[in-house]
Amino acid sequence: MKAVIHSEAERALILERIKGHNPEKAKALLQLSWATGLRCAEIAGLLVTDIVYSDNPKLVVRASISKTGEAREIPLSETALQAIIILAETRLSGHLVLGRQDKPYTPHSLSERFKKLYQSAGIKGSTYSGRRGLATRLVDQGAPLPVVQRILGHKNLTSTMHYIGVTDSMVSKWMQKAA
Fold it and tell me: Which PROSITE patterns match (predicted)?
């Protein structure tokens, strides 16, 4: 079963409904997922030092945490950068995303955290919702498939195609062009 792709309105509603222990960090975690499309294991393995702050900030996904075993760089949007700043706090080293008692998440425990965040908001979702949502938004905005493939860190385009959903706006846009 494919992960749910959330609209902009649904993402805003999810963020609005986040409550409980440290809601700002919970929101930042979701925003990081939505803005970068990283896999759960990649998010869990990120270090504070994997962020390159410059005129063009980027995130380095090290080969050791990448599913494909290949490193890649992802340029950071302002939303992703702000989420990272909230998650990193004032730390200069160590894991970027920490759970309770300031311990790093395992990929499994982080996946469970995502499930609980979506459940608490009353909206279906999983770790892969951010990944599928980003891929779909990129294609909807006209990004070439090889660009989406590179961002997601796939070796072949077939894998990337599994993450892209067809939205109503895509269908409308192309039907208008065809008319």
Answer: TYR_RECOMBINASE (PS51898)
